UniProtKB/TrEMBL annotation:
Its EC number is 1.2.1.27. It comes from the Eukaryota. This is methylmalonate-semialdehyde dehydrogenase (CoA acylating). One of its GO terms (cellular component) is mitochondrion. Residues 226-688 form the Aldehyde dehydrogenase domain. It is an enzyme of class 1 (oxidoreductase). One of its GO terms (molecular function) is methylmalonate-semialdehyde dehydrogenase (acylating, NAD) activity. It comes from Hibiscus trionum.
Amino acid sequence: MMDIECSTELTEEPQMLPPPPGTFIDREELIQHVGEFAVSQGYVVTIKQSKRDKVVVLGCDRGGVYRNRRKPVDESAAERIRRRKTGSRLTNCPFEVVGKKDDGLWVLTIKNGTHNHEPMKDIAEHPSARRFSEKEVLLIKEMTEAGLKPRQILKRLRQSNPDLLSTPKHVYNVKAKLRQGNMSVRDYKSLKPQKSAVRNNYLSVTEPSWRQHNPPRVPNLIGGRFVDSQSLASIDVINPATQEVVSQVPLTTNEEFKAAVFAAKRAFPSWRNTPSTVRQRIMFKFQELIKRDIDKLAMNITNEHGKPLKDAYDDVLCGLEVVEHACGLANLQIGEFVSNVPNGVDSYSIREPLGVCAGICPFDFPAMFPLWMLSIAVTCGNTFILKPSEKDPGAAVMLSELAVEAGLPNGVLNIVHGTNEITNAICDDDDIKAISFVGPNTAGSYVYSRASAKGKRVQCNIGAKNHAVVMPDASMDTALNAVVTAGFGGAGQKRVSLSTVIFVGGLTSWEDKLVERAKALRVQPGTEPDTDLGPVISKQAKELVFRLIQSSVDSGAKLVVDGRNILVPGYEHGNFIGPTILSDVKVSMECYKEEICGPVLLCMKADSIEEAIDIVNRNKYGNGASIFTTSGVAARKFQTEVEVGQVGINVPIAAPFPSFTSLKPLFAGDLNFDGKAGIQFYTRVKTVTQQWKDVAAGTSSDI
């Protein structure tokens, strides 16, 4: 009986458990995990040993128990020594956990999970709670210079922070360090136990390191945290109008990429089980935040891409439409149900998310394409890794900040940066189940072949050569306004630009008016009011456009309007190209066969609508085509016989909703961005067949 009572007493003693082992994205996340678990158990951990990029050893801070310095009258010397040893915070606790970096991730192991002291009843009594925040240290400095005493300083600090546990002695210690010129924030880092139970004095409470650089470095988003890459290699983001460096994009390291994939994979089980209504609410909030910050987003796009502000607003708004579509996605994710297939057996299908998906974006729509990809993917229950263009990544990072603010859980959205190496890593990683890509022809074909060889689901929207067919009976104002707007808008860098115009019957009757409208376009920085045409994205792009123009002239094309020598006052070094018109273009010319990312309009002639349709159909990169006519018969013939995915009748092909569809190699894959096809791409069908029968009856059914 005695043994039973003793064992009962032992089991009732408070137990302090060690944190569960696991794998973490980085050192800080591991330390936070250990610290928060320690608080729940009644102890506080501290860093005992650390090699920042290799290992960190965490130990117990002894519960914060200090010895009682008052000597009881009836206490012997031996008793005082015993109490001093057992009660002293200097007595080491055997608890110890180790975090080691292994293949880019941090692995936590428990070396000794036991303690030699009881748990603290109130963590706020721990000395770490008596540390001052950075703001309080600065106030102490100011009040000391004003002649206030420690008690007066403490009284004023407690007016703004009633829970402050510091004593006048702590204020005096801070003042002593200030007199020595020691203003390092980490010496005074506030470590309130209710927020973080780790005395991680190495952390800074100032702005993130990536914001402290000049120019700022574009961060990765990994596991819900914006972190500066450890990479030494970076790419400058250049304002194409001024040539000023806006920011720097560090090339995400292989370890950081693996951490992003790990974060997405770890977040997937929880996110897929999150009710669709909760995911919808996050999208509603995301939509609201985009509208709130649309001015900042548009200005960032103009500074990095160069497009006029009005085009930058349209960029965001077109992406916002997909976010709004995602808000109602639950109604489109329904499956099918068939009752009583054979006797007493029902069969139904459900749509489930794929897992970790990825998106690779081009430079021409810095906000729209990321929103097209991630909004549908995450609302369907997937986690996502986004690689924005290294030429203008700012809008994607700003949107990810808004997504986190909207409530997107850690790890659901991650952002990495880079060029070929990171693209290869996305294609090769076995944990990534699907890839969306928009970009040039060569890159898109490469991504499709490499990723599909790994068994991934892939959709590649690659370079476009869009045509407009102008019939002799077309309204001149309607046709020319549309051709000039869609041909030169966005400096001709949009994937939906009308780069080629086929005039049925010849250009002669249209040429003067077309030239007049082209020369009336205002070429200036996108930040200037009433800008029609901004700069192209880079000097390399400008040189390529110049080369294609010269190649066309050398091949026999007529240079109707030459925009190569344009000069914008005050922006002489900008990547500006004026509206350029080439006529007498043949299908054999390089300018027709290649995608021109610049404000260059190619004019061709055809003797009939049949010849015009044949020209469009023979171009292998025909994303879309428009016809301008007043004849319903001609419009219907064009609509029926032209082999493109998007058809415009008296309008350009630019669509207000994602509609990358094509009958040509422009699209690699079988499911597109738009509507239900987007949902089908980011989900898979699971068929369930079920039977419920009365066990007592002992009957069975043949299926």
